[in-house]
Amino acid sequence: MVPINYYIILSAILFTLGVVGVLIRRNALIIFMSVELMLNAANLAMVAFSSVIQSFSGQIFVFFVIAVAAAEVAVGLALIVEIFKTKRSIDVDQMSSLKG
Amino acid sequence: MFLAEPTHSGFFFLVPWLVFAPVIGLLINLIFGKRFSETMIGTVASLASGAAFVISVLLAYSISVNHGELVRWQLAEWIHIGDLQLDWTFRVDSLSTTMMLIVSGVGTLIHIYAIGYMHEDVRFKHDVGRYRLFFIYLNLFIAMMMILVSGDSYLMLFVGWEGVGLCSFLLIGFWYEMDTLGRPSLANSNAAKKAFIVNRIGDFGFLIAAFIMFWAFGSFQFDQVFEAAQHAAPGTILAITLFMLVGVAGKSAQIPLYVWLPDAMAGPTPVSALIHAATMVTAGVYLITRSAELYTLAPQAQYIVALTGAVTALFAATIAVGQYDIKKVLAYSTISQLGFMVAAVGMGAFVAGMFHLITHAFFKALLFLSAGSVILGLERGHHHAEHAHRGKGKKGKHALSKVEGRKEERSHEAHEEVRRVEPVETFDPNDMRNMGGLRKTMPVTFWLYMIGTLALAGVVPFAGFWSKDEILLDASLRYPIVYWLLSIAAFFTAFYMGRQIWMVFFGEPRHGAALHAQESPRVMTVPLMVLAFLSLVGGALNLPFEGFHNLGHWLEYTLHEVEALPLNYAVAGISTVLALLAIAASWYIYGRNPLRAGEIDPLKRRLGAIFTGAENKWFVDELYQAIIVTPFVKIYQFVADVIDWRFWHDWFHETVIAGTYNWVSNIALNRYADQRGIDAFANGLAGVTQWLSATMRRIQNGFVRSYALSVLLGVVLIVGYLILK
Amino acid sequence: MTLDLILFLILSLIAIATALGMLLSRNAIYSALFLVLNFTTVAVFYLLLGAPFIAMAQITVYAGAIMVLFLFVIMLLGAESLPKAEVLPWQKPLAGILSVALALEATFLFITRARPAGNIVAPAETANMTDSLREMSMMLFNQYLLPFEVTSVLLLVAMVGAIVLTRRERRVHQ
Fold this sequence. Notes:
heterotrimer, A: about 100 residues, mainly alpha, Helix Hairpins, B: mainly alpha, 28 helices
């Protein structure tokens, strides 16, 4: 019997790691992967809740999240490839032309 | 709008046209004159004046038909404020019609004369365009004089009084930018100013009299004033009459305000004739005659008036003896004769005074206009001589000066101070020393001038004899001292007129201009002949024989108390003898050995300093200059320069007001309030905004990671807030 | 200490370790592979929580398709290069602090405010996979039909978008 709180804490830790990854890494792909990590953390939390309240709504929600994540990855990676064609680098610090 | 009973028959309805006919004449000339020929302009003006004369005749006729009954005709209401009712009302009675006839009659003759005179004068002065202006002014004068003599109250009289003063100013200064010789100068305009200012002093006296009158009697209207005067305090009447005398002294050129009249000779000769001999200057005499009831109530005033007149008569006559300018002689003669008139009306001999006014108008106008004819004749001769000789070249010049040259040589060593060598360019046609022998070259003018002289000198049977004799008779009966003063003045009168005749018309021409002088055209001489005729027969107006006191009877309608004195052979005889003696003396000094060119006046040789005094008008002008004018100039310069300019303008306005204003606007408002205050605040705001935006701008550094950090920061803060809530 | 708890702890350690590995790894390939591991662990978690379908979906889609896509792109774009110096010096410390703060806040928020939760029911006590699958499908196609259809459209759009973005512009030859 694992209390739900443990899953919540785990989810929070994973989410935080994802946030740290987004903020710290300069490689665009790593950042993207960190975003996926964040999504996963959220999914985990939702499945945990779904298990607790004995309803499938959480799981269905996770199902949709996974589908949307897939779509998002596809488009995102296409964009990164396009940017790489122009800038010859995927260092996000180099993509700072829109500065004020 | 008859104020009298409608039973009056006659032409009284024509009264306003007395004034408006000349006004229409002047308006026609003013508006259309530029398109008219000179003759047309003169004709229009003369017709206007003539119309006034015709109306005067009709009015006189109407008065006589109505047995001299007074008619008052109101034209317009003027000032109606509460109890104050002042109207423009015409007064037609025997006295005013007499004046109307004289003014318009002599005026019309002078208009006709001026057609010819001004035609030549504007050409000698090189300004043909000014011809029309002259006739406009002349008509204006006639209109104003008509207002003066036809007024029913002292107020209307004063309106005309001021109006003729204005016209006098305009006409004296007609050639305002030059002097009498045509050179650019302020002389003419100064003469006009002098006339106006001295007249103003007289007007001041008149106004004081009018104010006292209004304050004491409450009205200006003649009948009301005379009625109220019967019950007034004698002091009031005395004050009124004496102040009125000041006005008369100004307008009629008596001592001490006569100084403007000789200077007024700067105007063209028709002006001198009309205004300063026949009409305007007689306004004072008319005033006293009109105020007869007031003067009879103040015997002391009468005595003073009579004395003033007599002294003026003698004083002016002595000055006339020493004058060289032909018009100046006549001017002083006018002052002297006005003295006669003023003395007469002062004594209460109103008929005698008016009689002399009428005859004097005739022969003085005649004399002045003839003098104008002489002057023009000289100008013509001068022109003719100059052009003819210039045509001949250098030789011609010598020929011209040959006439004077020998005389100059002879007189050179002896008479240095008299040697007024006039260069040919500044030839003075008025100077009698340039004349001589004109009776041969200008015969018509000569005879006309003779008639005028004899009339003025008072030789029987000319008009002047009868009128002057009547004055002398009245004087002998009332104030003997006046009689003696006037008799001596009469002696001088005959003397200087004789001197003038001998100097101008007899002897040899003393200048090329006189040698070549030409007679005047008929348009000038015909009016003179009319005047000469009147000077001859004018005495018939009031002969001192039973049944012939025509003027006396006529004026009796107005004056109510008229003494008709018979001829006194003693007085008449003495005056005739004096006149003949004077003429003989003048012949002895001037006629026997006619003056030659460059010679000084023989009387000067004999009398020396006395003659110099007379020649310089007894230095009266210089006295006035020193006592009155110079201190006044100092005062006004002080007021204008120090008080007005330096204090008021420079200090008060510039430093105080402008300085304060500048300080307030520049320093206080501009520098402190605006620049340091408001601008600083506004700029400060802008600065703050700039600083803020510059700082904030650095947040947008283009790095996505920092944006993400900002988002995280926001999330943390919000969640923290939610936790703490 | 039941088996569940021990299993949970071990698996959570693995999950966190792999996540850290992904973060700290210099090589992008290693990061991706670490992430794959992480996903697999999470799939196991799903199994533990009684969501077999989701576990399979996780492995198939996430670990299988998405991460493979990532690996393709990593290999396509080359190794990570960090040539320049750090441009944002405050980034790392601040990120660390804020993340920790976020984590603490989230945990605190949930533990104190949320409804007291029960225990996780073991999956062995529930029905078998087929039944749960059936029930989930019933719910999916009945209650959540609209999101399902919309998701399909979304996938289509993503596909079209990816192709459009990477299409080369045809140049008109002279």
